[in-house]
Amino acid sequence: QENPNDEEALALLKFKSSLNNATQLDNWDKSIPMCNGNSSNWKGLFCSNGELIMLQLEDLGLSGKIDVGSLAKLSNLRQFSVANNQFSGNMPDVKKLNGLRALYLTNNKFTGDIPDDAFTGLNGIRRVIIANNEFTGKIPRSLTNLPKLVDLQMQNNEFVGDIPDFPNQVDLKVNFANNKLDGEIPPHLRTQYPTSFQGNNLCGPPLEACKPSKKFPKLAIIIIITIIAAVAFLVIALAYFIILHRRKPSNYKKSTISNLQRSDKKKEAQYNNNNNNYNDNNIKKLYYKKNGGEAAGGILHFVRKERQKFELEDLLRASAEVLGSGGFGSTYKAELLIGGSICMAVKRFREMNNVGKEEFFQHMRRLGKLTHPNLVPIVAFYYGKEEKLLVSDFVQFGSLASHLHGKRSPNQPGLDWPTRLKIIKGVAKGLDYLYKEFPDLILPHGHLKSSNVLLDNKCEPVLSDYALLPVINKDHAQQFMVAYKSPEFTRDDRVTQKTDVWSLGILILELLTGHFPANYLKQGKGANADLASWVNSVVREEWTGEVFDKEMNGTKNREGQMLKLLKIGMCCCELNVEKRWDLREAIEKIEELKEKDSEEEFSSYGSEDIYSSRAMTDDDFSFSVVEKV
Ligand SMILES: Nc1ncnc2c1ncn2[C@@H]1O[C@H](COP(=O)(O)OP(=O)(O)OP(=O)(O)O)[C@@H](O)[C@H]1O
């Protein structure tokens, strides 16, 4: 049967044939399907539900002709980017691509005037990014009629003449810097940043006022007087407003902060499904507008080349909800509408100034190079003096913590054994990768806990909040990060490369028992000072059956494997660091686990085996005093 994408594949191959230097597109091959659900087999293509929606051919050294006629056959094409290549000549005739939402031609060598009607009919377009080329002539008037336009970047070209007004685009952000433009900045662009106009011969707000023309001194005087009168009026009105405002009782502040107030209830809510409570808030509303975050107006630095770019402003304005707050700050889910809907998780960090700016950027770039199916990819970051934002992919299915400890509807089953086994195997793989990538770090993860194990729609685990220790202020890390709740830190004030193994052990025990480890830490000194001690005491009394989470239904013929995992958890929680397994050993043992027991395994495992794995002395009962959770 004819593949519906065949025609598009042919169109793309024709498009490719008019490019020069397209050697990197060698997997564009008609025998391989372009799209596979939401992923693509051809370099530079992005697909959604089997349809090609974006073409991102960036940094490929391409030149030659852009065959727009062929591109026009791609019926769902939303984004077209050839940024950072060697294209020259006139701008392609993009008005033929009438479904386009974003166009990126930045950093090429395009020349010539752009016809006035070049953008006519592109009624869905949101971004026109043609900066850093050699375009000449006037700014095409058709740009002013694009109802959805929010981002127009034409800086570093050779445009001449005046800037037209953009009266219809309320959220538009422009950049015309470093051209040869002159005249007065039009009324609807006066609230833009002054830097968007610098390097031209422009005047008027937000730049300096235009010099009054010598021909009409009287008119100039009238204008100045009018401006002074208007300013005076504004000052008086402002003063009046302030006086009026001060007199009001100040319960305003309370209601704003209450949005984000921390409470134990919220922690519980946080563990309920992440997809609840969707509303029309955005991060600005939820935090910045009210509490004055420093990020507004800042720059988002992308650490992954292949990812679709967006601006910080887009992120802060996107529809958002609070996912929860931890020791470092709040995390938000933001839904961006660019070339389809994309959900990102945005985590605010304070106390992240352990290293200088340069080193911080370096560390982020290092995180941006990590690719592993069991790690949440960090996509971008914002660097502010006091505050940082880390942007990563939003993981759909909530955290392991929410599945283990959150409320469920009565007919929703708990996680079964095969799923729990899959989760711990994935966690082990993610950790293994981190240890290989960060041999220089004492704690390659440092913050392994069930709320930092997220689940995708197939219940595959993905780790978050990893490898952040180098950038977090020491005091803060010691107060909040999981590694610093380990016996070796509370007892000896030290952490080692085996401390993440202890966190893994606690995670395993949490997964098997369904008990929330923080509850034990709260109780402090005593026989059950941590989850491992509790498990130990139950096992010692030969009540091993009591250890396992009752929600983990259908355990028949699986007890042997479950006991093996329990033993692994106990060995990872060995108090004596020297005797504790290292990560490699723990991973190997986890990898050996199977879903079902073989006959002899089924009969040979008993509680004695488990008990001997954590040799308990009287001292052990009192080592782990952790007041703060
Ligand atoms: N990328 C993501 N996708 C989906 N949910 C996420 C993502 N990152 C974090 N979350 C969820 O958001 C909530 C808040 O996370 P956050 O990391 O702020 O707090 P925490 O993990 O409880 O504590 P801490 O700050 O100490 O790590 C948690 O339930 C977490 O599972």
Overall description:
By secondary structure, the protein is an alpha/beta fold. It has a seven-stranded mixed beta sheet with strand order 4-5-7-9-11-13-15, with no helix packed on it. Strands 18-22-23-21-20-19 form a six-stranded antiparallel beta sheet. The longest helix has 31 residues, at 217-247. The protein contains 20 helices and 25 strands. The protein is globular and about 100 Å long.
Report the principal-axis shape: globular
Identify the bound ligands: adenosine-5'-triphosphate
Q: Tally the helices.
A: 20
Helical content band? 25-40%
Give the beta-strand count. 25
Quick take:
By secondary structure, the protein is of the alpha/beta class. The chain has 20 helices and 25 strands.
Name the descriptors.
629 residues; alpha/beta; seven-stranded mixed sheet; six-stranded antiparallel sheet; 20 helices; disordered C terminus; binds adenosine-5'-triphosphate
